[in-house]
Design a protein that fits this description.
alpha+beta, Alpha-Beta Plaits, 6-stranded antiparallel β-sheet, 6 strands, 35% helix
Length: 109
């Protein structure tokens, strides 16, 4: 679904087993409580300390609802506590007059 709304969280951290397990459990919970969640992926980038977490949604309203969910806040609080850098990007189906994703300000410690 290439036109589905997506949000991307990129973060830098030393991913130990405990952190990985906590993230996986939170992602499983998000998938269970978010019926319009299509999929998520957690991938390491070329930089061994940088990870990307991408969520794909059925529609923009579902993605927007996710932004205020307790499960996302729990995930973000975990990442903020364990990461040296955290950034967030939202990709929606762009209106005909724009071609750029909406970006938010990265968090750095």
């Amino acid at each position: 679904m290439p036109d589905s709304p997506r949000n991307l969280i990129e973060f830098e951290t030393h991913m130990d087993e405990t952190l990985h397990l906590e993230i996986v459990l939170l992602l499983h919970h998000i998938a269970q409580v978010s019926p319009n969640h299509i999929r998520h992926t957690l991938k390491k980038t070329d930089n061994p300390q940088t990870w990307r977490l991408e969520f794909t949604w059925r529609d923009a309203a579902s993605m927007e609802n996710h932004f205020s969910s307790g499960s996302l806040q729990t995930l973000l609080n975990l990442l903020i506590s364990r990461c040296s850098r955290l950034s967030f990007t939202e990709f929606q189906i762009p209106p005909p007059d724009t071609q750029h994703p909406r970006l938010s300000t990265p968090h750095s410690r």
